[in-house]
Amino acid sequence: MSAYDDLMDFQRETEALAQVAGRLGWDQETVMPRGAAHQRGEEMAAMEGVLHARRSDPRIGDWLDRAEAADDVAAANLRLIRRMFDRTAKVPARLAAELARVTSLAQGQWAEARAAEDFAAFVPVLARVVDLRREEAQHLAQGGDAYDALLDDYEPGATAESLTAMFGALRPRLLALRDAALGSPHQPVPLTGTFGEGGQLAIATELATAFGYDFTRGRIDKAVHPFSSGSGADVRITTRTAPDDPFNCFYSTVHEVGHAAYEQAIDPAFALTPLGQGVSMGVHESQSRLYENQLGRSRAFTGWLHGRMTATFGDTGLEPDAFYGAVNRLHRGFIRTEADEVQYNLHVLLRFDLERALIDGTLAPAELEEAWNARFLTDFGYPVDRPSKGCLQDVHWSVGLFGYFPTYTLGNVYAGCLHAALRRDLPDLDAALTRGDTSPATGWLRERLQRWGGLRGPRATVAHATEQEPSEGPLLDYLEAKFAAIYRL
């Protein structure tokens, strides 16, 4: 066997173990008994120790030095294994294991603090997570920007400087559109009523099927914070329900199906290799947001959803056009995952700035709640009334995902570019969407982007699919055209 073959055999075992570790995380969020939290922390630490040892195994360096790439796939595998090997070697094994242990425990403590509306109870473990991630960032950065080193875990090649410039270009037009829409005399009517959990979950299953989710390789469960987990032949999603807000369930489901469909569509030949998963969280988010918003909240598709709602719950009190307005209505709110398309990115920009301050040390964890509330009041114009609607609403910081939040807005930008190209190539798409048939769009995405997994870098992946370099322009143009029509601006 060649050095490349030896390396890939070793890598497939590492990837398989990483999938097992991911399944432990899924279990913790869905069905694990509460009393198992401390033991699960030890289990996660043990798994991370094994994975760290494998990813930094000296034999990898030797194989990389001797391996030759026979084609583009082999070259991409070598590039990604080299990247992981170099990054892992910079982080001490004891730090990697401690991060896994502490963040597993912190996740449960966050959930308890959130339920009790007690930010002070969460501060000690948050401070420990921040300290550990800052230490890791210093090892990775080696004198460079610490936040960029963490960001590189989720969006290789991106920098805080480049994202700040992009976000700066987004912000003025988003604020202007929000103010114009909320100031319009024409305001869509919200959906009202009570909608049973059984009916919501039944429609959620229909939606998942409509968007191409393969239930022979996946399942839907409930969780506090919806997420997708796994790749290849085992890709699971979660959703949540609220009796007075079925859209939360429906669009959380479609969002997570976007993530899952990406993983399920990757070329099976890439399974258990570095190419066998989404290339970055920004590209991943482009799929979930495009499924959720540009497709799922379109006038054509909401007409079909209106029919399913009526068949399941009876008269909603809204005709199809009014239902479309209700789905897309701008509204006051505190929760990022429930935000309308226009204001969503403002929630992300808030988190981006605060987590950079936590990592560079200019904001102490104990000061986070006050800083969050002040920034929210400035950006949205009304005060946060409880921690669960403020700095305790997201799970990300409890599990150490610093650098993750900006990929949500980057994903929206990528989705804007992909949607423009998709509409260019599929001018009759709305005719299919009115029937609840998303296959022209999801098929286009599978062929242009999803099947390639990690073969190309993030921006190159989007550029290959759209045949142009990504920028924020298409997203802003789409939002302004859509909401100008809804609000009759």
TrEMBL record:
Cofactor: how and how many bound: Binds 1 zinc ion per subunit.
MF GO annotations: metal ion binding; metallocarboxypeptidase activity
Active-site residues, Swiss-Prot/TrEMBL: 256
Coiled coil start-end: none
Reaction catalysed by this enzyme: Release of a C-terminal amino acid with broad specificity, except for -Pro
Any Pfam family matching the protein: Peptidase_M32
Alphabetical list of CDD domains matching this protein: M32_Taq
Biological process annotations from GO: proteolysis
EC number: 3.4.17.19
Source superkingdom: Bacteria
Residues at which Zn(2+) binds: 255, 259, 285
Transmembrane segments: none
Keywords, sorted A to Z: Carboxypeptidase, Hydrolase, Metal-binding, Metalloprotease, Protease, Zinc
Family affiliation: Belongs to the peptidase M32 family.
Protein name, UniProt field: Metal-dependent carboxypeptidase
Species whose genome carries this gene: Oceaniovalibus guishaninsula JLT2003
